Amino acid sequence: MQTTHSMASRIFDENSALRTILEGTAPATGGRFFDALVANLAKVLDTHSAWVTEYLEESRQLRALAYWADGQLSRDFLIDIADTPCEAVILQSGMVHYPDRLIRLFPSNPDLKAIRAVSYLGAPLLDRDGRVIGNLAVLDTRPMPEDPRARTIFQIFAARASAELQRLQAETQRREIEEKYRRIIQATDEGFLLMNREFVVTDTNQAFCRMVGCSREAVVGRTPLRFVDEDYRQFLMMNREDLFTGDLTELESSLTTLSGRRIPVLIHGNRLRDARGAVLSYMLFLTDLSLQKRSLSLAAEVQKSLLPQEAPRIEGLDVASKTLSCDEIGGDYFDFLLDRQCPQDAFSIVVGDVTGHGVDAALLMATARAFLRMRASQCGVGAQIVTEMNRHLAHDVTDSGRFMTLSFIRFDPADRCLHWVRAGHPPALVYDPAADLFRELRGKGLPLGVDGHYRYEEYVDAGVKPGHIIAIGTDGVWEASDRQRNTYGIERFCEVIRRHAGLSAQAILEAVFSDIKAFTRGVRQEDDITLVVATVGESRKAGPDYMI
Question: How sure is the predictor about 339, in pLDDT bands with cuts at 50, 70 and 90?
Answer without folding.
Answer: low
